[in-house]
Amino acid sequence: VAMDPSGVIFIGYYTPDSHLIRFEEWSGGTRLSQTTVDSPGGTGLGSQWFSGVAITSDALGDVHLSYLDFTRGQVLRYATNRTGSWVAETVTTCDDVLGETSIVTDSTFAPHISFPLPAASFGNLGYAVKR
Fold first, then answer.
1. Three-state helix/strand/coil letters over the chain
2. pTM
3. What is the pLDDT of residues 96-117, one digit of tens each?
């Protein structure tokens, strides 16, 4: 959950029934919008899962999501609506379908993401920044 400067609440999540990464905006108890951010890149059994969704917003009100994607292999994905529409991209390889990500932006609005490293480094966190 994140909030923009005007108090609109942002929620990013994975919906397992349709295998999508979704984003919603809420004001008080009213949903203002619901948008699909990313959909599976694979169709085989076990290749339709996302996990570890994290969300933040920056001082401009742009939203940033990070999540683990097992539909395109085991990768860390990053998505933002900075350009007006949602753009998602693969950042690097990751590990563990049960892992979590964490995201924050700095004063230049660059996202910083922590995530589980591949199996060779089990138990260690990875770090990525997009400039």
1. CEECCCCCEEEEEEECCCCEEEEEEEECCEEEEEEEEECCCCCCCCCCCEEEEEEEECCCCCEEEEEEECCCCCEEEEEECCCCCCEEEEEEECCCCCCCCEEEECCCCCEEEEEECCHHHCCCEEEEECC
2. 0.90
3. 656 789 999 999 999 999 998 8
Compute the distance between CA of residue 57 and CA of residue 99 in angstroms, rounded to an integer: 22
Using CA atoms, how far residue 124 sits from 58, 60, 68, 99, 104, in Å, is: 27, 32, 15, 11, 19
Nearest to 98 by CA among 115, 113, 81: 115
Q: Which two tokens stand for residue 108?
A: 């230049």
Distance CA 104, CA 112 (A): 5
109: left (phi over 0), alpha (psi -120 to 50) or beta: left
Instruction: Enumerate residues 6+ apart whose C-beta is below 8 A from 107.
Output: none
Q: What is the mean pLDDT of residues 63-75?
A: 90
